[in-house]
Amino acid sequence: MLLVHLLIGALATAALLGLFDLARRRRLVVPVWAWVLTVLGLLFGVFVIEVVATLLAEGAPQAALVSGILLGLIAVIWGVLLGRYVFAKPVTAAA
Amino acid sequence: MSTTKDLTRRDFVKSLGLAGMTLPAVTVIGRIGSDELVTSEAFGGFLIRRHAAADPPYQVDDSIYRRFNQHNEVFSRAVWDKEIVDAEAPYAKVPLDHIMANDPGFNRMDYAFYTASWTVATVQGNGAGAVGGSNGGLYSWQPLPGSFLSRARLTEMGPWDMAGYTPREVTDIVKKAALFYGASMAGIAELDERWIYSHRDTKGYSDPPNIVAPILFEDVDVPEERADKTLVIPRSMKYVISMAFEMDYDGYQYPIGGPANAATGNGYSKTAFTAASLAEFIRGMGYHAIPSGNCTGLSIPIAVDAGLGELGRNGMLITPKYGPRVRLGKVITDMPLTPDSPISFGATEFCEICGKCADTCPAGGIIKGQNQRTYDARNISNNPGVYKWPVDVVACHMVWSTSGMSCHNCIRVCPFNKPEGWLHDATRSLIGMRSGAADQAILALDDASQYATEEDSREYWKKDNFIHIKNA
Questions:
Q1: ipTM computed for the complex
Q2: What DSSP string describes B351-391?
Q3: Whether A95 contacts chain B with CB within 8 A
Q4: Domain extent for B272
């Protein structure tokens, strides 16, 4: 499980760095509140993956499936909203 | 002249953050009142509420309550009560029929596995680990003959002078010893005489069986059993060490059958071994000790007083860390100890809305619905006067007889019956906030997750169950 935790942490860090790079390349002016929501979204995503991984390791596949669907749906909606309204187009002014 | 200011997005987010931090704090502070919030690895590493000793998390109506007579306990009645004996007699051959039919969960291996797990409890524990009487075998009220204790002549010395240790430190030493010998949890309570049986019953472990004799508290020096079987507890023995023993998680995932029954028997055997070892340790320090499984007194209220958990709808102790998946033991002593105080962590409130144990009880012995707690009894095997969900233990015992092994559905399906880990600890912390909405959501998730729905107990042998066994 330790390797799984490390992998999940590395992926989350890579995702955050990727978003920083994306914002820089697109010259997006991302306000602080959006970065806060992004970080929270990433943390939530990590939480969802950790929940599913933990339940699978525990031998409860049904619980992993249910949690994955419910929490994963929230994570996907969060990600889509952030992508659509924050990272998909240039933001010209901070709120 | 008035000034108005538009709410900016920044202000909105700030307000949201502030409210998010303030509301839980106010809620928690408002709820704990004068009680203390504590956390400990023994409780699973999350916050629980420790009550003031004068404000335990249960209500007793002393105008109704009387000390329980062990003669009325269902295991005693299964020996003397003709109604129960006659009703269960036709099922005496059920185990053999199962074995001959090689029924899953009830085949020869299952019975061998299950009966062997009881070895220490039945052979050395006078059966007292579960269903037998007081003061026998490992549960002797006197130093055990032939033990190393007498070789070292420790019993000939006076009480240990505590040699610079404070009572709190001595208490911690005794608790550590309990965990060392095999307990999963240990707590100390001042002995409440209400929880000690008014009479003991020797059940089937005497000739003739079912000898009934009082248990008295007197100003004597040593615990004793008189010729008429009367037991006498010295009034100086005013402390009790309560211990909980975790039972195998995987065994308790399956329906009635070998794995769960073996987990139960193992719990009782551990109880006998540990209670006896701890009693001998205390005797070695020059104090008196009365080890006990289910004999001598009611283990659950003693465990509640000692801060091990809360009473659940299923009539069992719900511990924060293991839920109801524990067996209980105790050692009464005159060794000066510092009592713990009762705890609560939202179990009673959760039981109020849950009721899974009642829904799945094959005997219909657990009360369904909300606000059903009562001071009344359902039959003579309940003790009236405590505000609780009384369980129809006669119906419960009947299921055991007809199925050929003991039932444990109420432990199996309990949402508190989960393995250790951050995820379930976090869930228990949410339950500890006593929010009805959170409890409903957790319950819905638990339902959808379909825990403890395995049906074929042969699968037990394919699981790497040892990851769940602690203190084995």
A1: 0.73
A2: HHH--HHHHH-TT--S--SSS--BS--SSTTS-TTB-B---
A3: yes
A4: 57-467
